[in-house]
Specification:
The chain has 193 residues and is mainly α. The chain is built from ten helices and no strands.
Length: 193
């Protein structure tokens, strides 16, 4: 049995993340999740109607944190270069801190039903559009080069970060902040007027 820490829903999600990351969604049973979380099946079903609900909660929690960070960064009203830097560093930090959640979701998101897939796409689009608007505004104002469309800039930045689960190692030579700063430096170098 796993050590009992945290509130029940968080323990269940944490156990699911670890098991889905290690074994895959299909190979993980509900019984394994409840055993790892030190709860009963009744407790799991009290909070989550199905294993699919757990998968969606993994995504919902991650994108919720990332959207809150993005909204806060943009609301600060700083110059575009600082805003882009903070967006990229924050995204790398939250992705690195949630590397298993990100890996599970990227690998298993195709399992979402149509309604949940629509919700996923809507939130992902909102993130993308918010980030893109920062770049577009700076391009219009002359602070960033418009040689590369803002949409492409954002796709490149997000694409690099989305691949973190395949190559990032927490015990590697670079901290998430340093890695995020280097990625931001790369993106900003391409935006210099």
């Amino acid at each position: 049995m796993a050590r009992r820490t945290g509130a029940t829903p968080e323990r269940i999600v944490g156990a699911a993340v670890r098991l889905f990351a290690a074994k895959g969604f299909d190979a993980t049973t509900v019984q394994e999740v409840v055993d790892a979380a030190s709860v009963t099946k009744g407790a799991l079903y009290h909070y989550f109607g199905s294993k699919d609900d757990l998968l969606f909660e993994i995504y919902r929690s991650l994108i919720g944190r990332q959207m809150a960070d993005l909204d806060g960064i943009v609301a600060a009203g700083l110059d575009a270069a600082t805003t882009v830097r903070r967006i990229v560093v924050s995204l790398v930090e939250t992705t690195a801190a949630s590397v298993d959640e990100t890996a599970v979701f990227v690998r298993e998101m195709h399992r979402l039903d149509a309604d949940r897939m629509a919700a996923f796409r809507s939130e992902r689009r909102r993130y993308h559009e918010t980030f893109r608007s920062v770049v577009e505004q700076a391009q219009r104002d002359g602070g960033f080069s418009s040689a590369v469309p803002a949409d492409t800039v954002v796709l490149i930045a997000l694409g690099v970060v989305n691949q973190l689960p395949t190559w990032y190692r927490p015990d590697g030579p670079k901290s998430p902040t340093r890695l995020g700063t280097e990625i931001a430096d790369f993106v900003l170098a391409g935006l210099r007027p």
